[in-house]
Write a structure and sequence with these properties.
six-stranded mixed beta sheet, four-stranded antiparallel beta sheet, binds adenosine-5'-triphosphate, Rossmann fold, alpha/beta, 35% helix, 7 helices
């Protein structure tokens, strides 16, 4: 995926908000890219534009030869809230993207994915009957069910408790290693970004620009315990300094 000179201004009643300023980035096929930055620096604006849910004021985003201006079948998005429809059971929530495309759900693939994330047997449950972690697992299945090549994740585990978040981080790392999808993942947590990413894009405060790109070469699969190693903690602090210095 290629982002070239992406800028976004929002015109509001109280004036213009310059959310993104000439962001250019080449996302490598199959990489796990995390985007980190202070609140309001335009992370969601960038991700929504990559999903084709937002227009840019200038610049462009491409996936291969296609310019992304509307939702694209190869790109799926997962949000902080699982966004399951409360009146549909799990199976029918997961079938929704297929209904929208007027295609038949790929039952075999869905059932493999449900098995993979530990939700086999829960197909007839309604969202209210599932924990937050289970709902987010279901939304991952819904995103992967259509077999996209790019998965966009907007702070998907931000609302979960620390233990569930660790579990989900391990799960998404495993799924990424198994499937080879390109994942672009927004987080506020430096440790989460370091744990998951091949590269971390650090963005600066408004207007959002790319401040730094950090390569993470920790061997995989990474166990949760890597986060307590002195090397990992030193790296977290380096990135924290990078972000703090910008604020001064
Ligand atoms: N629809 C909108 N209309 C007007 N301003 C908006 C709109 N969406 C976002 N903004 C503004 O654009 C800026 C960037 O917002 P965005 O949500 O992309 O940042 P973010 O880095 O994802 O923030 P957070 O980390 O808090 O989720 C913010 O100042 C926000 O208030």
């Amino acid at each position: 995926m290629t982002i070239s000179g992406a800028s976004k201004r929002y015109d509001t009643r109280s004036g213009t908000v310059h959310a993104l300023d000439r962001v250019s980035l080449e996302v490598r096929d199959g990489e796990f890219l995390c985007i980190l930055g202070p609140s309001g620096c335009g992370k969601s604006t960038l991700l929504w534009s990559m999903a084709g849910l937002h227009g840019l004021s200038s610049g462009e985003i491409r996936l291969g030869p296609s310019k992304i201006e509307a939702p694209h079948p190869e790109i799926a998005m997962i949000f902080q809230e699982a966004n399951l429809l409360p009146w549909r059971n799990l199976e029918s929530n997961i079938a929704l993207p297929f209904e929208l495309k007027r295609t038949k759900p790929d039952r075999a693939r869905i059932s493999r994915l449900l098995q993979r994330v530990g939700l086999a047997g829960f197909e007839s449950k309604y969202p209210r009957e599932l924990s937050g972690g289970m709902q987010q697992r279901a939304s991952i299945v819904r995103g992967l069910a259509v077999d996209p090549s790019v998965l966009l994740m907007d702070e998907p585990f931000g609302a979960l408790d620390a233990f569930t978040r660790d579990e989900m981080n391990l799960l998404i790392q495993e799924i990424w290693m198994e499937t080879g999808k390109t994942i672009i993942f927004i987080t506020h947590s430096i440790a989460e970004a370091l744990f998951l990413a091949d590269r971390i894009v650090v963005m600066s405060a408004r207007p959002g620009r790319i401040q730094e790109i950090v390569e993470v070469d920790l061997p995989r699969p990474r166990p949760i315990s890597v986060q307590s190693t002195p090397e990992f903690i030193a790296r977290v602090n380096d990135i924290k300094d990078m972000i703090d210095h910008r604020k001064v």
